[in-house]
Structures are given as structure tokens and as C-alpha cells.
Specification:
alpha/beta, 5-stranded parallel sheet, 15 strands, 13% strand, elongated
């Protein structure tokens, strides 16, 4: 497994006045949950833009009479095509309760800690407001695939009707690309795959063909490894993991070399669960429950990302107590190599939960009636996977049943 898998960082926590308003209430009126919740979104709460019927009713149990959360709750999605506050607004509309952006972890959220790349010239791929997302995360010099295509028009040649035959005079002045940020699957895969391979092979400056591929190539930061995700269609749809699979294999086929990920974030990477854990603890602190919180429950529909990731994080929590373990050494080295250690401006929140239980729902990618959903679609850099890491602690029909199960396990009403 690559060093990227073991990256564990704390990112600076943004202003939380809105979250404080959502959570704060007199201690005497609070229940005392000893757990925090991590919810996937697609296939658990919605399919496409259609809210799953059990979701709204289930979430009513997590808020009090005034609509404020009484259980520390974070929504962890592998989506990377939106800003956190937009996703929070969507969740608020879908669930008819107020969700704050500090309760949302996007696939790209931990990139705020990757300071060593923020001043480099980065090429970004995906759809939606990718340039705005990159700037929000701290990247200062950003070029999109469409902008690169406009500067080097001869590179995009698949669609004959879309070809640009007139050369751009700016080519000779274009500053070298110093790294790639892959947010999510693009709309035009052929264009993005071609230009990304060109940039990787030419060390970031596709003005002329190299005599041999430059290797190791420039850094690649990739978010969202979902091979598939569940929308309105009866079968799962291709996700960013499918795009990454194409990129890995094309690069290997053309160069004979393996594509190297500097970092892979989003589920099932431990960094995403580590980050979400800190957000849960931040909420618990507002509720005066940080000393009570002992367990996390992660609810998802995909055994290769949601369940695998939660079980991987459970393994990490268990190994934390083993001083000098191989995993602990790898974690420390990853932090040092990628982000230069923990940012001194971070607010240190003690990790209170010592367990992370995985709960699989049957409303999304996983289907009890289909053997296809049991195949191993885990990301390349996470292979081989111990089969037990893809086995949920619990399996239920839907998210409402998952909430009921957790309440029963915890003796919470």
C-alpha cells in the first residue's frame, strides 16, 4: 500500500459560529450520547437527486424539537464537484433539517492541509466549479483542463468537430505544470485522459515530445476512488475510480511505467475518516460531550469504499496503542513527507472514540440479491485487501434502520 494510504493530518478548522448555533443548548436539556455518526450520502440518503423515503424520517430522531442536532453527526461523501456549503444546503433541503458546512466532509476537504502544493502551478480535473474549489482549498496557481486545451489546441484530437486547428501564440510562455489535482470524473473523459497523460509524460510542459517519459512524474493528488456510485438508474454508474482506472492503465500501456499517486484521499483512505473523526469531536465539544464519546458508526452503501474505509479506520484506531508499530511509523513519515507535519495553527482536539463500526445499507451500490456487488472493486493502491475489511459489522435495509440499530446498541432514545 502506498504512503498516501497512511496519511493522517488535522486540517485547520474554519469558523464554527454557525455550527455552534446549531448545536448549542443548555446542558440540562441534552441527552448524553456516547457515539458519533458518519453518514455517506449517495445511495444512503439520496439516489441522484431523489431522496430515499426512509431518510427524512430517520434523521428526525437525531435532532431535538427545535431542529438542533443532539448527536454529533458528519456527512462524509466522495463527491468532489461542489463546495461544502453547497452540499450542506442540499442536505438541508433533502432532510428538512439545518445542516451546517462544518458537518460535511467532501472527498477533497483534507487537501487544505497540503500546504507544500498550494503555491505550485496545479492542473485540475473534474466538473463543476473546479477552479473555485481549488482556490477555496488554498491552491493559488490553478489551470483547468479546458484552459490547457485552449493553450495547446493540437492536444485534443478525438472529436473531429471540436478540434481547434489554429495554434495559440501563448504556448511558448506557458508556465510548467507542477502537479495534478483530480477532483472527480470529468464530462469529456477522452480530452482529460489525453491531456493528463501528455502532461505526465512531458514533466508538465507539453510543448514537444520527450525522448523518454520523465519518471518519476510530477505529483498526482487524487480524490474519490469510487469505481461506481448509485444514482436513479437500476445499475450503479461509473465513478471517479473508473476514470482513475483508465488513467492508470493508459499511462502504463503507453510508458510501461506505473502511475504514482502522491496522495489518494476520500473514502476508503484513512485520512478522510481521521478528518471526519476530528469534526465529530469538535461537535461533541460544543455539546459538552467530548469526554463521553467512545464510538463512531459509519453508515454506507458500498463495501469497497464505505465499509472498507470504516474497517480500515477501526484497524488504525486499534493500532494507535501499539507504540512503534509499522503502521504508526508509516503514518508519521507520510505526514512529514506530504504536509511537513501538523500545522501549528490547528486546534488540537483529542480523539475520544476508540472504535469505528461499519453499517451497510441495501439502498445503493450493494444489493443482497446481486453477486456483482460482492466483487472486489477496491482501488489499486489498496490491494490486496483482507476480505474481512470488506465485511460490515451490521447490515440493514436502509438508513432509518441503521439509526434505530445504533440507538438500540447504545441504549439511546
Amino acid at each position: 500500500m502506498s504512503a498516501a494510504t497512511f496519511l493522517h493530518v488535522l486540517r485547520p478548522l474554519e469558523a464554527t459560529s454557525g455550527l455552534s448555533r446549531l448545536l448549542s443548548r443548555p446542558l440540562s436539556q441534552q441527552a448524553n450520547p456516547r457515539f458519533g455518526l458518519l453518514f455517506d450520502i449517495d445511495g444512503v440518503i439520496v439516489r441522484g437527486k431523489k431522496v430515499l423515503p426512509p431518510a427524512a424520517d430517520g434523521f428526525k430522531h437525531l435532532v431535538d424539537g427545535s431542529g438542533k442536532f443532539r448527536v454529533p453527526t458528519v456527512f462524509v461523501t466522495n463527491a468532489g464537484n461542489a463546495l461544502r456549503h453547497h452540499k450542506a444546503q442540499q442536505l438541508s433541503e433533502w432532510l428538512q433539517i439545518e445542516v451546517h458546512e462544518d458537518q460535511v466532509v467532501m472527498a477533497h476537504s483534507p487537501l487544505r492541509m497540503f500546504h507544500q502544493f498550494h503555491n505550485k502551478h496545479m492542473l485540475v480535473s473534474g466538473q463543476g466549479p473546479v477552479k473555485e474549489i481549488a482556490k477555496y482549498l488554498g491552491f493559488k496557481k490553478v489551470t483547468t483542463i479546458e484552459e490547457l486545451r485552449g493553450i495547446f489546441p493540437a492536444l485534443d484530437a478525438v472529436d473531429h468537430q471540436r478540434r481547434i486547428s489554429v495554434p495559440c501564440s501563448f504556448e511558448q510562455y506557458f508556465p510548467r505544470i507542477e502537479g495534478l489535482v483530480l477532483f472527480g470524473e470529468p464530462v469529456r473523459w477522452e480530452t482529460s485522459l489525453q491531456l493528463l497523460v501528455d502532461v505526465l509524460m512531458t514533466d508538465g510542459l507539453p510543448t514537444e515530445a520527450p525522448t523518454r517519459p520523465i519518471y518519476p512524474h510530477i505529483p498526482v493528488l487524487a480524490c474519490n476512488m469510487d469505481l461506481q456510485w448509485m444514482a436513479e438508474a437500476p445499475l450503479p454508474r461509473f465513478g471517479h475510480g473508473a476514470f482513475l482506472l483508465c488513467l492508470e492503465n493508459l499511462y502504463k500501456k503507453i510508458t510501461g511505467l506505473d502511475l504514482i499517486y502522491t496522495a489518494l484521499i476520500g473514502k476508503p483512505s484513512e485520512v478522510t475518516y481521521h478528518h471526519a473523526h476530528h469534526m465529530v469531536m469538535k461537535q461533541a465539544k460544543f455539546l459538552g460531550l467530548e469526554k463521553n464519546l467512545k464510538a463512531l458508526y459509519a453508515i454506507g452503501d458500498n463495501i469497497n469504499t464505505d465499509i472498507f474505509g470504516a474497517n480500515l479506520y477501526q484497524q488504525y484506531l486499534r493500532n494507535q496503542s501499539i507504540i512503534g508499530s509499522q503502521r504508526a511509523v508509516q503514518v508519521a513519515r507520510s505526514i512529514e513527507n506530504l504536509v511537513g507535519g501538523i500545522d501549528e495553527t490547528c486546534e488540537m482536539v483529542e480523539l475520544g472514540a476508540s472504535t469505528c463500526s461499519s453499517i451497510l445499507v441495501e439502498t445503493g451500490v450493494y444489493s443482497q440479491d446481486s453477486s456483482i456487488s460482492t466483487l472486489d472493486h477496491s482501488p489499486r493502491d489498496f490491494l490486496p485487501v483482507e476480505e474481512k475489511l470488506r465485511e460490515p459489522n451490521y447490515t440493514v435495509a436502509n438508513v432509518a434502520e441503521a439509526i434505530n440499530l445504533i440507538f438500540q446498541q447504545e441504549g439511546f432514545k
